[in-house]
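Contributing new records

If you add data, match the layout below exactly. Sequence lines come first and carry their own label; structure lines follow with theirs. Keep one chain per record. Anything else will be rejected by the validation script.
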Amino acid sequence: LEAFTMDKTRKSIRELMELAPAEALVKRNGLEMLVPVDELAIGEQVIIKPGTRIPIDGRVVEGRSSVNQAPITGESIPAPKEPGDEVFAGTVNEKGLLVVEVTRLAADTTLARVIKMVEEAQAEKAPAERFVDVFAKYYTPAVIALAALIAIVPPLVFGADGTMWFYRAITLLVVACPCALVISTPVAIVAAIGNAAKQGVLIKGGAHLEQAGKIKAIAFDKTGTLTRGQPVVSDVIPAPAYSIEDVLTKAAAVETGSEHPLGGAIINELNRRGLTAPGAKDFAALTGRGAKALVDHETFYVGNPDFFVRDLGLALGNLKEQVRRLEEQGKTIIMVGSEKEILGAIACGDTLSETGLEAVAALKKQGIKRVMLTGDNAGTAKFLARELELDSFRAGLLPEEKVSAIKELAKEYGPVAMVGDGINDAPALAAANVGIAMGGAGTDTALETADIALMADDLSKLPFTIRLSHKALSIIRQNIAFSLIVKLAAVTMVFPGILNLWIAIVADTGAALIVIANGMRLLKVK
């Protein structure tokens, strides 16, 4: 069963390779031709058309565009790309035409390494050898040998009654049979996993339940885990001569023709305020910088502050300080204006999940260290870490860097869990002592790799899971200790003949029933 599960996991991980195209459009001898990705050489130039997946890791040498890097970095907002910037296999080129110089062979791309790291981390996770298994290895032959000695030695050496000592040997075998000990762990685990399933938490086995009870630190991915992963408008700042309505309506008019997530956030905010955008025509995307359109017979622009300052030659003026403050909070700033002046600024940011704040606060009370690992920028990460009262954060991480961060946390704190939802989280989920996937939003890979899945994307289930694991560990220890004490007492009473066979049977069965009843208390944990 273990081998079957491992093969199934590895098969699902290999399916990630479908993210990267099998062929690439490459420039060779002045001609454009489709060639298998495996045949690309470092230094060759690959043409990436708008709306296509990037087949190889490389560096942009021509063109500007925005690239959806969510499969690799987990960033919620497409990253602008221009000459000199790095791109990854499996990510999506959104608008502009890019020419990319190959920097890694197909077998060495970030996506390929993600797959390899997950497989290696899974292979390293040998199941912990149970105390009961080790105990039984020595206990069983010792009891059989002792029973044989009891049956044989007194009659042969001392001339004692053979029937009586044979009876005592049989009594020893009955009372020493470790029924309660053997059932002490499974009954608790079955009860805890059953309870968790009712609460919407899928725990993939007893080893993971036990390990969760030993966790000292939890690392969270940001996008889609602590946040919703969808940008929303947080601030609208008009220039002195304009109103919020002026800024929003002009921006929405331009963005009506755009498919960018930030454009969608602006239009959603317009609708929320009950405003209507004027008609626009001649829309044009300014790749990696913004967009423009003709609104009320005048060309209006939306874009990043650098575009307005560098390309349009406009000064931010009174807005400069507010823009700087919002950027420090990790928000994305969109300027709105014409060729003559800036109308105002719109700030967009990701929003915290409803259950994230509650879950992190509950984990703090449980004495667990809370850390955020994200591929997003440091400004966003710092602001969210302060809002959530996290112990620390690490930003701008690629998948292999998340794995390194998990290993460092394990050295610092002890057993560590990782909570994530994306392909980019899969290696870290596998490397952690316990990998916890956000169920509904999680990719198949994250779910396959994880040890525990929160089925309803509800982070508030996480403190419950940790508490349940602690309780399960406690009850397992109680059961094992009780079983051993009862057995030891019963065995010592066999030799003087205090314990007869029927009392041995009652004691053995009674101990098993008590252990079962104690384990079933885990069904009651809320």
